[in-house]
Structure formats: structure tokens, C-alpha cells
Amino acid sequence: MENVMKQVAIALAVILISGTALAQGRGGRGGGGGGRAAAAPAPEEGFPVTDPLVVQKCGTCHTKDDKGNLSRISWTRTTPEGWEEAIKRMIRLNGLTITPAEAKSVLKYLSTNHGLAPEEAKPVMYMPEHRIIDEVIPNDAVRATCTNCHALGRPFSWHRTREEWQLMTTLHSALYQQAESAFRGGRNAGGGGAAAAAPASGSEGAAPAAATPVLDQTLDYLGKNYGLHTPEWASWRARMRAPKITGRWLVSAHVLGKGKYYGELTIGQGVAEDEFTTTVKLTPVGGGPAISRTGTGLVYAGYSWRGRSKGTTAVAKDTPDDLATEMREAIWISPDQSSGEGRWFWGEYQEFGIDVKIVRATPEPLLYMTDKYSLKAGSQAQRVKVYGNSLPATLTAADLEFGAGVKVKTIVSHTATEIVADVDVAATAVPGKRDVTLGRAVLLGGLAIYDKVDYIKVLPEASMARLGSDVHPKGYQQLEVMAYQKGEDSKMHTADDIELGPVDVAWSVEEFYTVLGDDDREFVGSMSGTGLFTPNVDGPNPQRKFSRNNYGEVWAVATAKNEKDKDGKPLIGKSYLVVTVPTYIRWDQPEVTK
Amino acid sequence: MKHLRAVNKKARRVDSYVASLGEDVIALQNGGGNNQQPAQRPHVPMGCALAFSPGWEVDSAGGTAGLCQPVERDIYDCYVTCFWPAQVPDHLNNYPDWASKCAAATKDWRNLDLVFP
């Protein structure tokens, strides 16, 4: 039976791939000035490929036209990760032979000359940063066409002409028959309805519609909003310059579950103009040993940092969240090359990470972080540390300001990089985020003032851990608690709520009732006192009904030790935690950091 | 109810049923905006497929209750017909040899490789 299926599958593949080959040919012609049909609009101009190595490696299949355009490639732009994935697919399926050094050079050229503008890359930085976010899906057509299988950040990391987008969907039809049913009105066509979690509304096995409105709508959307030619890219092509980023940078970092860190990053020149070495030292604001790390990185398209670094100390055994672990880095450097933000990440699913903001050290005084999130109105002699650079040698209490109602009582100590001050907060101080200022140096929203903790939230609000063992390593989930005060609208969980920082909590796991009596809580894994969830082993579990895996869904619960609600009960925060199976595919391009 | 204690299987099911209703009551109260926890429903994390039948990482309700039990029973259906192409390798084009070391997934699942496309 399987043999028959295999033969059918191979026959089908041959037919579909021939279709793709035809389509590719058409792409080349289209770019070269040929018309598709008499009524078709003139094809868009491509971006010529000028690098001899890229022409040599890609040009054997991707035909070159008289303007120097290579078919497909000249009508496509994407991130380094996107190009790396494409190069790897060419090796896997299309017989490309390329050495790692050549691949690196091709990747650099394509990511820089056929890349994204900083403004285009910013909204999809969560993909290279490996953050799990709640994506905003623009319409049901896109939902049905793209998110049936993967995160929206993947298509949105690419810019192509509409024709190129169409060829890309043809490629999907050839490689994945599931795509065909999503595109052409079979199962799940028509989108998943209004709610992301709702099952799709299309009838199963329905005959494909004669027209392909869903696919066409999506192609129209992508061609318009993620087209090849954009004002951003036109401007960035002209403006792009070599990264001059060597020197001292100041780092403010946040480690999920561990809190704020501050420190310094020194970037040195590497072997090439766009390659660098790094040394970083991060100190937790709450006290504790500092972390020293060294690494390397490179910059694509003048702003897109990809690097890797590791701690100078050995990684402790059985501590997956050890900060000395080798991490990869994705940082978006601002077009003026004066600041940057991104994530340093590690873990089997890149589930551990440090949110990092960097700002270039300048000769002028600069503030970049405080050690506290918030201070309570009416509190006296609160010690606050403010971190900065090139701070003045003489300083009085009047120089440092936190806004109305907050009085700096004394400057306890100060150096060129740190001020320690004792402050009094008036009982009448208006709650909200304050700017911290020292002369002309301003730290926006550096400290919040509050009068009451109204609720606590467990972050991330919906999280996921993955079962694992030695063969398929575990995917952990670090949780964190954040306290809030209601904002001006007096409602909880709205955008104007004031973030007050973490509070002391006790962690636990509670049953989330989906199936009665399945006792997920007993099987899914364990929660540590610091909010680190460790999932159980993968594989069938004979102790469960039908040998179910140890998967399940639970509440991750944080119970505040000090903060109480209006009835005197401790504040409780809950987050929905799905503990699920491993993936056998990892869409990850670690090569871009080397 | 606090003086009653479940002593057999059926009674424990009643207990958990009552507890699950409790969750719903909390959810209903959230409209008022005065309690601590808003209604938080299961949802599909980013990157999980939305084509559900039954689902790879989560089912259509955003949980795991509807997945194959165990999922190893579903792996070859995903693999051979590429039903979860973003979560499980496909047999047709990209990874024809993925399952060659694993004759019966419910027994030999440890032999299945991870792939990095």
C-alpha cells in the first residue's frame, strides 16, 4: 500500500515540479521585458545582481537578462534568514553546490543588496529574534492562505512583485499539497473566521471553486503591501552606509524571570568592514555576580546585527537558563547608528532570551536606565540608582529630577556612570511614568509612581513548553510576574495601566479544565520557585489513557506574597500554559550569525 | 459542599466537573472589570498551524485534548501526506529518508531526527 502511495506521490511531484519549472521560466521572461499577456501591465524593473560569485553560483539556473537581472532573485527582497533558508533549499532540492565560505559571501551580498529597509524589517524583527507574539492577521484571506501552516512573520519578511508572490505560491503547491487545498478552496478555505483559535469555516472536501478568490485576494494584498518597490527601500538603497559601530555602547537588558541588568558593550573591528568582535559585561541591578561575555557579529544591509557570544565562565550543569550559555543575537541598529534593540536568545526553541537595548556612549552626559521600576506615593528615603555615561563630576540633589512630587533628598554617591540618590515621594504625587532628567540628559519613562498595586499579571500571557528528552530536547518556559496599577480609565487590563515591576510571588500549576479527569497537572512537568517551567519527557506514556503523551494545558499561577486585593486576599495572576509535543522541523537559520 | 468528600471515581468526576464550572463563573464575572483575572481563553500560539485535523501542537480549541493520543500515531500521516509541513518533515520532496530509521513511530520515535530546513 505504501509503495503504491509512494509511486503516486512521486508521479504527482514530477507533474507539479514541471509546473514550477515552467513558472520559473516565465518569471525570468517577465523580468526581462517579455509580456505575459497582451493586456498585462509592463513588468516591474528588477534589481540587477552585480556580484560575480552570486552570478556564478545562481546564474546557471537563474537566467540573466540584458539588464543584469537574475530570474526570480532580482524581483525578491528579504532578511538574512530568508536568504539563508532559500540557499539551503537550493542545496537540498536543486543541486546547488557551494562551500560555507561562498555561501557566507552570497548571503551577505543578497541580504544587503536585496534586503529590507530598516523600517520594513522592524515590524518583523520578532522572527529573527525568535519571539512568540500574538500576530495581527490583516484579513481572512491572508489567514487562510498563509497562517494555515506558519507564522505570518515568515511571508511578511519578504518583499516581491505580485507575479513573484504568485510564483512562490506555485512553488508551495508543488512542494506541499496541503498548501494547494489552502489556496484553492478545499479544506479550510475562506479563512479561520474572526477568532484566531476558531476552526476554519470551509466545508471539508468541498470542490475547488472555479475562481481562486482567496488566493487572489492574498496575492493582491501581498503585492500591494509587500511589493518589491517601496519608498522605504528606494530611500535606504541610497542612504545605506557601512556600519561604523566600533567603540563603547551602554546596555540596558531585561532577562525574563531574572529582572534588569545594566552594563557595557565594546564593539571592535573584525576581519571585514561589516564584521565585529564584542565584549560585554552585564550586572544585575538587584545585586549578584556580573556576567562577562565575548563574541562576534556581522551587520547586514547597514543595520541588521546578527551575532553570537558566550560567557567567560563555564555553564553550570542542569541549568538551562544559565546566562553563560552560548547565545545568538539579533539587533536592529537604528539608521543613524546611535542605538539599537533586539534579543539575545538560546535554548532548543530559543525560548530563553534577554531583551537588549543599546545606546552609543557619547561625550555628553547620558542616562539609560534606573534600577527600580516604580516607587510608591508617600514613601520616604527610597534609594534609586540611575545609570548613565559621562555624568558630571560635580552634582547636587537639585540637578537630578523625577518630575513633580518626587524630591531628591540626597545624592548618596555618584561616578561618571552611576548616581545613587535617596528620594522622597509625596503622597499626592500623580501616578504614572516619569522622565528622569539630569540637565539636558533625559531618560524617558524611567520610573513610575503608583499608589496601589491593583493586579498582577503572569507573562507571557499565553505560553508554550514542549516535552522532550535527550534525543528531542525539552522546550522550557520561563514565566515572570508584573504588577500594575489601573490607569486613568479605572479599568484593569487596558493599555493605560502603569507597569510597576515584578513582586515577590509563590509559583504553582493548576489544572485547566478541558477534559475532565485527565489530570494534566500530574503529567505535564514541574514549576520551580523562580517561575521556570520544566516539561516532562516526550513519547507515549503508558500510564495515561490511550498512552497519551504527557501533553496538556494548565494554568501557571503566581500568588503574591505581600500584595492583597480589596477583600484582603493575596493577588493572583494566571497564565495559560500549553505543554505540547516537539516539532521535528526547526525553522531556524543559525548560519546567519557566523 | 465542604463537608462532603468524594470517595469513589464517579464522585471525583463530579468534583472536577464542579471545579471546571467554577472557572466559567470566574469568566462570567470578568465583564464587571473588578476582579483580578480577565477571562483568558486557550489560544493558538504563533507559528502553530491553523489547519486543524486534529492539529499538531494544539487542536482547534487551542489545547491538546483533541490531538492524536499519542501523537506518534499521527506522525506518518503527517509525514507521508505532508499534512503538517511546517511541524513535521514531508516525505514527498524535502526529506524522503526522514523515517527510514523508524519502522513504528509509537515504538521507535526516539530514532526520528530533527531537521533544519
Oligomer: heterodimer
Silhouette of chain B: elongated
Number of domains of chain A: 4
Number of helices of chain A: 11
Overall pLDDT metric of chain A: 87
Supply the CATH superfamily name of the largest domain in chain B. Quinohemoprotein amine dehydrogenase, gamma subunit structural domain
Number of strands of chain B: 0
Structural class of chain B: mainly alpha
Computed Rg of chain B: 21 Å
Structural class of chain A: alpha+beta
Q: Assign an overall shape of chain A.
A: globular
Task: Give the amount of beta strand of chain B, in percent.
Answer: under 5%
CATH topology-level name of the largest domain in chain B: Quinohemoprotein amine dehydrogenase
CATH class of the largest domain in chain B: Few Secondary Structures
Question: Would you spell out the secondary-structure blueprint of this structure?
Answer:
The complex is a heterodimer of chains A (about 600) and B (about 120).
Chain A: H1 2-31, H2 52-58, E1 76-78, H3 80-94, H4 100-113, H5 118-121, H6 140-145, E2 158-160, H7 162-175, H8 177-183, H9 213-225, H10 231-239, E3 247-255, E4 259-269, E5 275-284, E6 291-300, E7 304-311, E8 327-333, E9 339-346, E10 352-360, E11 366-370, E12 374-376, E13 382-389, E14 400-401, E15 406-414, E16 418-425, E17 432-438, E18 441-450, E19 455-459, E20 462-466, E21 477-478, E22 480-485, E23 498-501, E24 505-511, H11 520-523, E25 525-527, E26 532-535, E27 552-564, E28 570-580
Parallel strand pairs in A: 12-18, 20-28
Antiparallel strand pairs in A: 1-2, 3-4, 3-10, 4-5, 5-6, 6-7, 7-8, 8-9, 9-10, 11-13, 13-16, 14-17, 15-16, 17-18, 19-22, 21-26, 22-23, 24-27, 25-26, 27-28
Chain B: H1 9-29, H2 75-80, H3 105-108
Structural commentary:
The complex is a heterodimer of chains A (594) and B (117). Helices cover 21% and strands 32% of the residues of chain A. With 594 residues, chain A is an alpha+beta fold. In chain A, the strands form seven sheets. Chain A has an eight-stranded antiparallel β-barrel. A four-stranded antiparallel sheet of chain A has the order 11-13-16-15, with no helix packed on it. In chain A, helix 1 packs antiparallel against helix 7 (162-175), helix 7 crosses helix 8 and helix 7 crosses helix 9 (213-225). With 117 residues, chain B is mostly helical. Chain B has helices spanning 9-29, 75-80, 105-108. The longest helix of chain B is centred in the N-terminal third of the chain and has 21 residues, at 9-29. The termini of chain B are far apart. The model of chain B is unreliable at 24-35 (pLDDT under 50). The chains are: A alpha+beta (594), B mainly alpha (117). At the A-B interface, helix 1, helix 3, helix 8, strand 20 and strand 28 of A face helix 1 of B.
